[in-house]
Amino acid sequence: MDSKWKTATGKNLYGSRWRAARSTFLKNNPFCIVCKNDRIITTATVVDHIIPHKGDLELFWDTTNWQPMCKTHHDAYKQKFEKTGLTVGCDEKGLPIDRNHHWNN
Question: Is the pTM of this model over 0.70?
Fold first, then answer.
């Protein structure tokens, strides 16, 4: 794991405490939220931080900031959103669903 995800005391954020919390969260939230919104049932394997924590411990452990995702959506959809600030996807007319996309202006 990248050294930037360590606490002030040098402990890894993604250690045993995280693994236990992640496991419990995924047992209680077993399906990818993005797939579910598309009416597809896919097992979630990643606990995503809705607002990137960037090392903020309070935000890191805030379970209201967690959402279940499949690896595909976390690695593609979420990462692209964090880099661009735009929600990925189109409506039935082929227009971007993100209101801030330049095509919607």
Answer: no
